[in-house]
Structure formats: structure tokens, C-alpha cells
Amino acid sequence: MRPSDTPLIDAFTIRKRVNEIAAEISRDYADRNLTMLIVLKGGVVFGADLCRSIDIPVRAEFVRASSYVGTKSTGEPTIQFLFDDKLEGRNILVVEDILDTGRTTSTLIKKLAPMQPASVELCVFLNKPVRREVEVPVNYSGYTLGDRFVVGYGLDYDQQYRNLPAIYDLVD
Fold first, then answer.
1. Which single residue of 5, 59, 126, 164 has CA 20 to 30 Å from 49?
2. Is 31 assigned a catalytic role?
3. pTM exceeding the 0.70 threshold for the entire prediction
4. Which domains, and CATH codes, for the chain?
5. pLDDT per residue over 26-74, tens digit each?
6. Cα–Cα distance between 30 and 24 in angstroms, integer?
7. Cα separations in angstroms, 26 against 32, 67, 133, 141, 166
8. How far apart (Å, rounded) are the C-alpha atoms in residues 158 and 12?
9. From the candidates 5, 28, 31, 100, which is the catalytic residue?
10. Burial readout 24-53 (b: 16 or more C-beta within 10 A, e: otherwise)
């Protein structure tokens, strides 16, 4: 499996959309504290670009969440929080590379509830509602995709291709 020869979404278009999302977030959180909870590994590229584009104070924390092996979901999400600070009273913006079945994100959001954040919202770079099994409200979204497997801009296939600056279909 390899990336297609032509990007589905090029780097310039990605940069433009990330800046638009950052402007929305900056406006919406102008009078609130903001903690971005970036979901590793795939969300690190989008999260870093988004964080640099937001023009209000922001904290960044990390969580590792996964449920994929190759191109298939295992259906069993694993969540590992990678921060020491309390989230109590903080406005949390979960930042994901892609929202697919919704299982992992739903599990993550449920695990945040006992930490008593002031709010929890979701920002996804790619949204695949056609694959949704568990509904999860999305507050900010970069692009909506159909049922296709893509790589690049943080998204991988067996830990490869995260470094590509654009989004590509995965082909044989």
C-alpha cells in the first residue's frame, strides 16, 4: 500500500483551512481559558499547526488513543492520558486527526467527564460521518470525507506516511 500520486488535499489548502479553524476557535474562546487535548499520534501535526495559528493563550496537553491496526479498527479503543495537571474547570478542546467510527473519541470524552472540565468540545481535521457507529458532536471540522483511507498530514498506514505535507488516498 502506498499514497496516491496526486494529493486529495494539498498543503496550501490545508494551511488555509487550519488558519480558518484557528480564527473560529480564537473568537469562540476569547473570554475563556483554552486547553487543547491533542490526540496522539495522528493529531500531532494538525494540533501543532492549529496551536501556532490560534491567537489567544492556549495550553497543550496530550493523550494517546488508538483502535486501528493497518486499515481496520479493532473496535477496542485504548486511552492513555499523558499529563499531570488537573483538567478541573478547564475548557477542553479535543483535537483529532480524523473522526471515523466515533468509538475512540466517544470513549475518550467519557473518560474526561470525571476530571470535571468546565467544557469539552471537539475539533477534527477530517470527518468521516459515513463510517460513524457512535455519534459524537463535532464543534470544528476541517474537511468531510467519504469512505476512503487516507494518509499524510499526521495520518498513517502502519506508522508510515505521517510526514507527508498533504492528504493522499492509500492505493495498492
1. 5
2. no
3. yes
4. 11-68+76-158 (3.40.50.2020)
5. 999 999 999 999 999 999 999 999 999 999 999 999 999 876 555 565 6
6. 10
7. 10, 31, 31, 15, 24
8. 26
9. 100
10. ebeebbeeeebbbbbbbbbbbbbbbbbbeb
Kindly report each contact of residues 21-27 with a partner whose C-beta sits within 8 Å and lies 24 or more positions away, as own/partner. Answer: 21/50, 21/53, 21/123, 21/140, 21/142, 22/50, 22/53, 22/54, 22/55, 23/53, 23/55, 24/140, 25/50, 25/54, 25/93, 25/123, 25/140, 26/54, 26/55, 26/56
Which amino acid, residue 20? E
Secondary structure in 3-state letters for the chain? CEECCCCCECHHHHHHHHHHHHHHHHHHCCCCCCEEEEEECCHHHHHHHHHHHCCCCCEEEEEEEEEEECCEEEEEEEEEECCCCCCCCCEEEEEEEEECCCHHHHHHHHHHHHHCCCEEEEEEEEECHHHCCCCCCCCEEEEECCCCCEEECCECECCECCCCCCEEEEEC
